Amino acid sequence: MTRLPPVRVVRAATSVRTALQSLTRRMVPPEVGILELTSGCFATHTVHAVARLGIADALAPGARSPREVADELGTSPDATHRLLRAAAALGLFREDGAGRFALTSLGATLRTDTDGSMRAVVLMIGDPRYQAVWGQLTQSVTSGRPGAEAALGVPMWDYVEQDREFAGIFNDAMTRLSALDWPAVAAAYDFTSFATIVDLGGGHGQLLTRMLKVAPDATGVLFEQASVMEEAEEHVRRAGVLGRCRLEAGSFFDTVPDDGDLYVLRRVVHDFDDDRAVAILSTVCRQMPDTATLLLMESIVPSGDEPHFAKSLDLDMLVFVGGRERTEDEYDALLDRAGFRTTRVVPTISTISLIEARAVV
């Protein structure tokens, strides 16, 4: 694993970057600044079109002209040139003196065949269905309720069950985001002291398999809905840890396995309002052994007006599922209501923090 910089170094670099961004904003009239903020959606759709058309893959062998790209992809040469030009202005490509375009390191993240590919995430965020839900933000702020049903016809999780194409896009993006967080999590937390690791709501088991690989003496339990068990078993088998895993189907609102040493919830609690989050955590507290540890992997909203991904993700949770991101104090209060006591909060160099808690006995 590549050695990661210390959290304090990353935070210092982020502070410098934030200061430079603030200075840049102050260098333009506010009318221009607000126009630039509002037209940010143009960039989202430009990057999405590049990803969906597979332009990064077409440029992987080297610099090519817009017509060469268009001939390979079956697109309009003129429109392809205009898209390449706009994307180059965003830093995805570099145009040479002959009018050919080549990938930059940023654009290379949109390839399909690289370990660092972010294409799956871009395909989700730019998807018209995803964007339609964000279009309900005004209504969600007015009502305090999610807007997915107004945009999609049914609540978010029902829609994911019904639209298998969107479900595939969504699940691929979640898998990539989990992988993106993992190096920072693994560098910040020692999983080797736990004999049995229970991943609650762990999807197809990507996180559990990673935890078991860094804790080779541990066994694992994947607790998820019955509908994903078949795919989860296949993933765990391919990862080579099926012999150390047990897969259980159920709802964490009702029960969870009672034999774990570490119970992990990664970006699960933020899907729910406080009452439903407490219901989940209370179930865990009631079922887990008194000596077990709870570990929440969540973004923590910082105080003040500093930029942070959690502040935007908070609105994403509101408009899609009625959930929320929380401050450290709000997590303390939530855990207290469920019968837990926060033992420590471990920051990482990513946007995720590790909130460790024990049951109050």
UniProtKB/TrEMBL annotation:
Which InterPro entries is this protein grouped with?
COMT-like, COMT_C, COMT_dimerisation, SAM-dependent_MTases_sf, WH-like_DNA-bd_sf, WH_DNA-bd_sf
Annotated active site residues, numbered on this chain, are H270 (proton acceptor)
A Pfam family of the record is: Dimerisation
GO molecular function ontology, one term from the record = O-methyltransferase activity
The alphabetized UniProt keywords are: Methyltransferase, S-adenosyl-L-methionine, Transferase
Biological process annotations from GO: methylation
Instruction: Please give the name of this protein.
Output: Dimerisation domain-containing protein
Its lineage reads: Bacteria, Bacillati, Actinomycetota, Actinomycetes, Propionibacteriales
